[in-house]
Design a protein that fits this description.
By secondary structure, this protein is mainly α. It has 15 helices and no strands.
């Protein structure tokens, strides 16, 4: 019993240390954002010695933060809706409909995991440029619509639905769309919500592709717009951190509200069987 307590104490200690190491950068960013620029430069401490919202006011009124918010929300909502819809329909076809090349298509989806997203960046950029979609929402959205893991997760759930339910719906005269949206979808609202939340957060935090395809400040998303704060005002630590805090706020709120769904989606995605 004593040995078990010692082991538990050691594990708890390491967990606390790891948590502190993880949360310290967030704490430092929050403290820095709540101090004046002069105080941050003169006394770069880690304790909150003042409560100054001037950096937040400057971030809201002296930058294009609201425009970046609008661009991020718009692109994230569109990508999330389209990804969930097309992934659901593709997974349903792979799971429930017999057609030539079905297994080959499924192996192609599985094989797409072997191709790093970075390997496609040059080709995607050339394609977006040829289509005239640089500095447009379409240029940001289109390359982010293919999410194979969402298809596979949906397929696993559709495979688990009893065949009798589909057969009963077919006997009642239901078509494939009716069966999908009125039978299968209501059974999987939980996983649909979880996948939608995770997809939204991923698109909201996306930096690399929007950074490449967007050069106009009015079309930038939040992660890309943060870099412009630094370029426009020099090394203004308090202002940069305040913009970063405001940029992270929607994601933090979404996670706190839908924490159980997010955790469920992560666990399901990491436990996929081919």
């Amino acid at each position: 019993m004593t040995m078990r307590r010692v082991e538990n104490g050691i594990v708890t200690g390491f967990t606390v240390i790891a948590a502190l190491c993880w949360i310290f950068p967030l704490y430092w960013a929050l403290v820095t954002s709540l101090r004046s620029e002069e105080n941050v430069t003169a006394n770069p401490g880690i304790l909150l010695d003042e409560f100054n919202l001037s950096s937040y006011m400057s971030a809201v009124f002296d930058t294009k933060l609201m425009i970046w918010y609008f661009n991020s929300i718009g692109t994230a909502v569109i990508v999330t809706a389209v990804v969930v819809l097309i992934s659901m329909m593709c997974a349903y076809a792979l799971s429930q409909i017999q057609f030539p090349g079905r297994r080959l298509l499924y192996f192609v989806v599985l094989g797409s995991f072997m191709i790093p997203a970075q390997a496609l960046v040059v080709t995607q950029f050339i394609l977006m440029s040829d289509l005239g979609l640089i500095n447009t929402w379409a240029g940001i959205i289109l390359p982010q619509l293919i999410v194979p893991v969402t298809i596979i997760v949906y397929k696993q759930f559709f495979d688990a639905v009893p065949k009798e339910m589909r057969e009963a719906a077919v006997l009642d005269g239901g078509g494939e769309y009716t069966i999908l949206f009125r039978v299968y979808l209501p059974l999987n609202w939980g996983i649909t919500t979880a996948l939608a939340i995770v997809t939204f957060i991923g698109v909201w935090n996306a930096f690399f592709w929007p950074f490449l395809v967007i050069t106009s400040e009015d079309m930038m998303t939040i992660p890309v717009g943060i870099t412009q704060v630094n370029d426009a005002f020099g090394v203004a630590y308090a202002r940069i951190m305040s913009v970063a805090m405001l940029a992270a706020m929607p994601v933090v709120l979404a996670y706190l509200i839908f924490q159980r769904r997010v955790t469920e989606a992560v666990m399901i995605s990491s436990g996929i069987k081919g």
